[in-house]
Amino acid sequence: MDYSFFTGAACGLLLLAATRIALGPKRKDSRWLIVLLAGVFIYLLRPLLQDQDSLLDLLIDFPTILIPGAFWLFCHQLCNDQAPFPRWGWWLIGGEIAVDFASQLHLHPFFYLLAQPFKVGIIGAGLATLLRQFQSDLVAERRQLRVSLFIAIGGYMVVVVCAEFLFTLLPTPSGVPTLHAITASLLAFGACFWLLALSPNALEDSLPQCTREEPPANPEQTSPPPLGATQSALLSQLQQHMATGGYRHTGLTIRELAAQLDAKEHVLRALINKHLGFRNFNEYLNQYRIDEASRRLADPDEAHLPVLSIALDIGYGSVSPFNAAFKRRHDKTPTEYRREQLPSH
């Protein structure tokens, strides 16, 4: 059994996973995951393909060039329900693709030396995205995906890029390609086993809605599950706590809130996610904070207060996250909102 055997096994499993994703709910946006799987599929097959002319080789290698950028975009898509991908991120991904193209065309050895750190940086940005706001993520399946992507897929991608760079300078040990194929097969098998057997709804529950969302076939599926007596009591306690200003504590985490309510963290997470419909704890807090800010910005008696003072009073550590959350709600900045509500001031 050699590289070809394990590569074939890995590619077959990747096709199975891609088919499962493609046939999933159409209202879920899985485009960057499909691009990522296509790139990995070609990357594994590439050593088995004969070299052609440079242009054809470049076309064959194009999906593999997209792997780092697709990984970062998928991580952002997975972990950010509302925030668009940053414009500077597109520039970085475009730069990485351009440098990789120049490296593939052998324009200058410098481009290859630059391409490898560029790839690691883009993949690292994806890993950082997976770690960012991990604690505030309320979707249990998505938290599991974050951990598995960080430990298994993202980490292994960094190892592969570094190994490729190292083995261009040193001889490649005889067993390394086969070990690489075996590892890829195991990762692909683990992904398929998870998506098809252990947690078939993991991606559906984690990925965001498409821009043009289709209405669910069964409206009853969107209603929150019924609550037991313990959960109902916790919900009432939570709502009372928030109504009395529990959200104003700066840097409040769901772990701290659970301690304040003397509740188990995982129970509180499930309650806010499944029953109240929030996928991120910060967005849950923003609901209360922006409600209060809107009232105070429209109050003539508080027209003398700076926006920063109001932001700090309601729990924000600085004005930037407050402005971002406020603009998502009202499509205008706090200053513009106040000017509109209090034209005489």
Description:
- With 345 residues, the chain is an all-alpha fold.
- The chain contains 16 helices and no strands.
- Helix 2 packs across helix 3 and helix 3 packs antiparallel against helix 5.
- It is globular and about 75 Å long.
- About 3% of the residues have low confidence.
Average pLDDT across residues? Answer: 83
Q: Spans of 5+ residues with little confidence (pLDDT < 50)?
A: 213-221
Radius of gyration: 24 Å
Secondary-structure class:
mainly alpha
Relevant terms:
345 residues; mainly alpha; 68% helix
In terms of topology, how is this protein built?
Layout: H1 3-22, H2 31-45, H3 54-65, H4 67-79, H5 87-104, H6 109-131, H7 140-167, H8 176-198, H9 202-206, H10 229-243, H11 254-260, H12 265-275, H13 281-297, H14 307-313, H15 319-330, H16 334-341
Summarize the structure.
With 345 residues, the chain is mainly α. It is built from 16 helices and no strands.
